[in-house]
Amino acid sequence: MYIQRHLEKQIKKASGYYPVIMVCGQRQVGKSTMLNRIREKERRYVTLDDGTARRLAEKDPALFFETYGSPLLIDEFQRVPSLLLEMKRIVDQKALAGEDNSGMYWLTGSQKFHMMKNVSDSLAGRIAVFDMSSLSAAELDGRKACFFHPSMEHLCERMQHFQPKNIHEIYQRIFQGGMPKLISADLDRERYYMDYVNTYLERDIKELASVGKLSEFYDFLVFLAARTSMELKYSEIANAIGISSPTVKEWLSILERSGIIFILRPYFSNITSRLVKTPKLYFLDTGLAAYLCRWPDAQTLEFGAMDGAFFETYVVSEIIKNYYNAGKRPDFYYYRDVDGKEVDLLFTIGNKLYPFEIKKAKSPNHADRNFSVLNKLKMDVQPGIILCMADEMLPYSRDTWYFPAAAI
User: What does the alpha-carbon distance between residue 62 and residue 199 come to, in Å, rounded to a whole number?
Assistant: First the structure.
């Protein structure tokens, strides 16, 4: 069973303007499935996981493109990034001849850290890059694509397509995650994630010279999963795993660029130097994080010590997926000062500041207590939003509203 992806529309639109489309994301989020689903009949498909095709691409890029022609979909492109130069030559040659070169090549890859090394230089102005994640709640619900804008007007519009869910349904979704194959097929969840982690470690991570023992990297992955939605403390991680702080930063970069985690940057202001500058970490697929933390079922997770951390991770990851599906880069922050005053999410648009708090409760009290600290930033602070388990969008006070997390 194929679940329609919101990114399809963005891919088709960009393919009408750009010669090359690149879709990046962690393994098994459905990149190849989606592109194969929407590709034209004349667009050929080749995967560089195939040894024969990969050898041809490595030894004779010109013959590779002569063999497969265009339009072409190249899967696992990061295995032979040297193809970029030949691709640039072909694309430019067609443009110089006055021919339409739009949508010639579609690329997918699960290792953005390899793919992006030469893209900006080789294909600047010729390529549209999209990030793709596991299935979003909106996709699973069959809701239409609707970009998450923080204004009251847009939030009210989102409520028109809202499908209420109780707390148990939310945690079941958190526990399950959004991997398409796990949802569409009758697979054992434990076995699926075990194979997924082994594949990720052995195929993606093993190829990186910066990673020594895979067992240490696995411990690192588990340690981070247990700290999803928390601040990144490099020395703490380094001491726990037995690696150096520079190695921690390098491995975090690997996880971020391969789409496993998202690092939320703190909000900076020139007005005050009392802001905490430590970023926060979120897993993009809550099912993977729950597996790594060894939570046995959704109910245990819901009532466990990490219930709040996973709820916050779910909300933030859903907003990130919404940005990805709209073809946009996530553009929000979190706020914390040295006095411990924290606001979970801050959206900035022009001179306007939109504060959001995330709470598991249905009608949390005092959730707006830190919004007032934002006034010192001398910006136009908009009504605060409390993302929670409310059944509808309701005012908490004159300047604060409850908003259902299930409506994201």
Answer: 31
* β-pair partners for 179: none
Q: How many Cβ atoms from other residues are within 10 Å of residue 27's Cβ?
A: 17
Helices 7-15 and 31-38: crossing angle, nearest 10°? 60
Encode pLDDT of 2-29 as tens digits.
999 999 999 999 999 999 999 999 889 9
Q: 320 is written with which tokens?
A: 């990130």
Average pLDDT, the chain: 91
Mean pLDDT (whole number) for 236-257: 90
Express each pLDDT in 135-190 by its tens digit: 999 999 999 998 999 999 999 999 988 889 999 999 999 999 999 999 988 889 99
Output the CA angle 49-263-215, nearest 5 degrees: 55
User: How far is Cα 52 from Cα 56, in angstroms, rounded to an integer?
Assistant: 6
b/e per residue 180-191 (b: at least 16 CB within 10 A): bebbeeeeebee
Q: Whose structure tokens read 């090359």?
A: 20
Calculate helix-pair angle for 307-325, 7-15, nearest 10 degrees: 30
- CA-based nearest residue to 287, from 197, 163, 164: 197
- Structural domains in the chain plus CATH codes: 7-131 (3.40.50.300), 138-407 (no CATH)
Helix 245-257 to helix 112-122 angle, to the nearest 10 degrees? Answer: 80
Check if the beta carbon of residue 322 is closer than 8 Å to that of residue 133.
Answer: no
